[in-house]
Design brief:
binds zinc ion, CBS domain Like, Hsp33 domain, 6-stranded mixed β-sheet, about 300 residues
């Protein structure tokens, strides 16, 4: 099954609901960064949360959204970038965290992320200034942190559930989640009904583990309610880095620095932190860059 997000309207359109299967996306991230299970779950949840936020907030090509989670846990910073077309890329500073399960027998994501720190979102919507919102980390489990961010920074009452299941061989067994947002004007009755639903909700990891599609996930959450399903959006791990982009970065170092790379290392290797792709610059590549600066070459 390919990864996608499904969107639906519930309670006469006062509730917007999103559900996602992101198993392939998190699998790709796990392979690229060689993450161990605890890091895989933390990065995976951040990827899923960012995809859900991007799907709700980004409308046009070129819109981007970056989620930065800087906690005090052993995982270090988690940085994830999403766009309007369902592309996501991201990394965790320490991909090799492997800690015991929590008291529920689940991966201890809070133990990876930490319980204190900053959760921030930067949205570039093509306006003059990017939007930026910042809240403290309140849980470290990340679903609650996305929920808190939406309530505190964007004034959107919501519920976010994120889950990543990792197999014994470190591969990703399943990854997915949901996001429910209450739109302005929803009355008390709707809010009370929603609260009741959420209180009875099975653990999201159990829903994901049972192989439910995004549509089925929403049907469990809103059992018996009329739902209007909107479009589906395919999602994937995808990075837009290129050798050309890294050349631009090397150019900014200046001629003497580039000459030093030639003299001392006979070349340079750059690594994209988001996707781990490596780009090699040999002596002639670097000489070309120097000539570009000095105007020795058209
Ligand atoms: Zn990249």
């Amino acid at each position: 099954m390919k990864d996608y997000i499904t969107k639906a309207l519930v309670y006469d359109g006062y509730i917007r609901a999103y559900a996602i299967n992101a198993t392939e996306t998190v699998t790709e991230a796990q392979k690229r960064h060689d993450t161990w299970h605890s890091s895989s779950a933390a990065l995976g949840r951040a990827l899923i949360g960012t995809l859900l936020l991007s799907s709700a907030d980004l409308k046009t090509d070129g819109d981007r959204l970056t989620v930065k989670i800087q906690g005090n846990g052993p995982g270090g910073a988690i940085i994830v970038d999403g766009d309007a077309n369902g592309n996501v890329k991201g990394y965790i500073q320490n991909p090799h965290v492997s800690i015991p399960s929590n008291e529920h027998g689940k991966i201890d994501v809070r133990g990876v992320v930490g319980t204190e720190g900053i959760f921030s979102v930067i949205k570039d919507l093509g306006l003059k200034e990017p939007f930026s919102g910042q809240v403290p980390i309140v849980s470290g489990e990340l679903g609650e942190d996305f929920t808190y961010y939406l309530a505190a920074s964007e004034q959107i009452p919501s519920a976010v559930g994120l889950s990543v299941l990792v197999d014994k061989d470190e591969t990703i067994k399943a990854a997915g989640g949901f996001m429910i947002q209450v739109l302005p004007g929803a009355d008390e009755v709707v809010l009370a009904k929603l609260e009741e639903r959420l209180a009875q909700l099975p653990r999201v990891s159990d829903l994901i583990d049972s192989g439910k599609t995004p549509e089925e996930l929403l049907e469990v959450i809103f059992e018996g309610e009329r739902m209007l399903f909107l479009e589906e959006q395919p999602v994937q791990f995808s990075c837009d880095c290129s050798k050309e982009k890294f050349s631009r970065a090397i150019l900014t170092l200046g001629t003497s620095e580039i000459q030093a790379m030639i003299d001392e290392d006979q070349g340079a290797e750059t690594v994209c932190s988001f996707c781990n792709n490596k780009y090699h610059f040999d002596e002639s590549d670097l000489t070309d860059l120097i000539e570009e600066i000095t105007g020795g070459k058209k």
